[in-house]
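Handout, section 4.2: multi-component inputs.
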Amino acid sequence: MAKPAKTLTNQEIVQTAGKKAGKSLVMRRQYQLLLMSTPFVLLVMLFSFGPLWGWIMAFQHYKVALGLWQSPWAGFDNFKLLFQDPQFFNALRNTVVMGVLNLVTGFVGAIGLALFLNEIRFVFFKRVIQTLTYIPHFVSWVVIANIFATLLSPDAGVVNAILMKLGFIQEPLYFLGEEKWFWWIHTAASFWKELGWNTIIYLAVLVGLNPEHYEAAEVDGATRFQKMRYISIPGIMPTAVLLLILSVGWIVQSGYESQFLLGNPVVINRSEVLDLYALNYSTSIGDYSYGVAVSMFKSIVSLVLVLLVNYTAKKTSGSRLF
Amino acid sequence: MLVRRSIGDVIFSTCNYILLLALGIGTLFPFLNLAAISLNDAGDTLKGTIYVWPRVFTLENYSTIFANEGLASAAVRSVIRTVVGTALGVICTAMLAYALSRREFFLRKTYNIILIITMYVNGGLIPFYLLVKNIGLMNHAAVYILPTLIGVFNVIIMRSYFEQLPEGIVESARIDGATDFQILFRIVLQISLPVISTITLYIAVSHWNSWFDNYLYASRNENLNLLQYELQKILISSVNQVMSANTHIDATDARRTNPETIRAAMTIIVTLPILLVYPFLQKYFVKGMTFAAMKE
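Output:
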């Protein structure tokens, strides 16, 4: 049985004194911490939860003059109208198609480029290529759209010039003025913008792979291609699968800036995504309730997708551990 | 050491270098093409395709832009927005991240949960537009700053960085009687240069690049027009012009400037700051991205 200490050692006295002093310090400290955090948490909440308040309008025939309190109720009228409008389904189709195209090309492109970059031994060359391919990620969509408009221009665009020189076409094509090209141009622009940047995570994983595997393969006489096929690709697969699953959740959320900028009234049947459809109804036609209903539909669908996908991702990555 | 390389390896390697080189050129070419067009005589540009070198060199396109008062002041406003927005954004993000990194903070968990929830909640474009309208930010300079002041993702990156700093530094400063504001600004930020640089760059680039808030929330106030929005207007008008004319502009119609060359010069002006800054700061961008990705 241990004897209880009768007298406090010097060290213990210092510790208790420190604890007491610490208590009063905690209160003062927390006051400053509160000041540092609360205003900003409130700000984030305002801009995140604030819009949800507007969802009420989806169930009203909102009139600006009457305001949110006086506007007449509409029940589900706006949603009924929505699901009868072929233009809505058109916008939904555009959103999904361009989302899927971006996802697939971006995913395959990033993994491929990462694998090829990983095989480069000449470090300087690798750095230069990385630096170059990251650049488009940092320029705005306005710039990207201008670049593509210039390249594809029927007047002096390089693409038309080359195609004509090679004899594929006789007359310059209006790439941005024909519906059938829009999805592909949009996909190409997104691909070009994000290709390099998307490789970063895969390159980080590849660098982290166990070098012993490569050394062992070398001893066994494996070719470069075999090493890529049997070591690098399986090495990045878990990350790739996880990222793929996670990004499926964002398919509906793939943005509207690029479609807005690359599109024009002539190709609107292919370029109008849900947000632009909603925007058109609200700001041009003035039917806010209808716009809110579209936004609400999109938000709910994407939230369900994201949650579903996160759940799946957790299950797959969890089972992968064993 | 004996280097044994099979023919297959050599072929693979060569193809790989060629492929990546082509990709590098493919990334660079559009920028060079635009730069060449922007430095080429407007009338001459219509006569035939410019590739990466101007045929009839001129600075006319640039001087036309700088002579335009609207565009020049838009450029100044863009710079001001970027500087002010970035300074405020970094300071506020750092304060929030610091508070959330302190384990003893009694609201730490609550605030963390709230912020995570806000990442999933998205009211949608139109409800957001109506919120901006209702709180009186429409056509007000604050609409450029407030909605994007705090990026939750940036907060998470910074918080994780602060959390892995040695606890002893903060503790000893506290024993010396330093307050949290002093600890953050005099100590923590001084030793967090990598993460500060990364976040600063992210915020600065997004301010410089944004145009949609200008278009949607501030287009009625001419005093708030930014460079990106001016460029977007030029893009729309020139594309529409091509569309409505339905035949391409007659090559003999040589004018001193045309929308195509002006647009190219504008695009270069808007892109140049990023191109100049980027190569020197690339490592910070990549560091931040890798860190964030690993967090996921």
